[in-house]
Amino acid sequence: MNVEYHVRVNTSLIATKFLLMWYVPFRGSDESINSYFKGSFLELVDTLKEINPEITSVIDCAPGNNLISAPKIQKDLVTTYAYEITQQIVCDIVDDMFFVLIDECGDVAGFINDLSLALQKHDQDLLNALSLVNATKQELQEMRNDGWEELISNVIEICNKHDIDVSDMDVSYVQGKKPRRYAITSSVFNLNHYKHDYLFSILDLQLHKLNARFDEENTEILQCVSCLSPSSSFAAFDVKKLLRIVELYPNDFFRYAGSGGVTSTSELC
């Protein structure tokens, strides 16, 4: 592989890894050269070009059919990452106790799946959606704070029931099932490996995503906008929330001399 080709492949791999990590769509509606937004993948490649002059010179001088950025190439890179992750998971599952632990952690996926299905309902009102988000955050946080003991107790019970070896939490973690003298021994104890590297990592990732998408500012905006819901004859209408929207977006409103004393949407008609 020549140096120029390696640079192009590596650049596309970096862009792919970043977009997959943050669940960002790759494609854009207009990917032409003069487009203001060509899609996240191509825009990220352009950003990498701005940061690194070597990338700029290599990509700009490459033939049009060898840029390693075509839609089919993007799909192939995603497939490659999925394969590598699957292989790593398969390697880890040789540890039977790890397999049971992952199965018991299904509650985390259940929380997120229930929330996702609820938010996709077309008749979902904003206030109910926000309450679901907050409830999911609370469940995940409670599981992180107090869920380990119950989880490991269930795992040990299942392992004993099915004659699966239970790892001693107070010894160093050993990768795989090789005899201890031949295995790769870690400086990390089993307790830290299972509790922090797996359970806490999963929970922290989900909490980070929820907090990033539903931070304090976004939540306040959604709560204010919910007062404009026409459900139940505008039962959620709240003048204070409406005024707060005006404070947040002053340029989107104009003064109307005859609007004094309005307390409900029906009075605006």
UniProtKB/TrEMBL annotation:
The record's annotation in InterPro entries points to: AtLOH3-like, DUF4371
Cited Pfam families = DUF4371 (PF14291)
All copies of the DUF4371 domain together span 4-109
Its protein name is DUF4371 domain-containing protein
What is the native source organism of this protein? Pisum sativum (Garden pea)
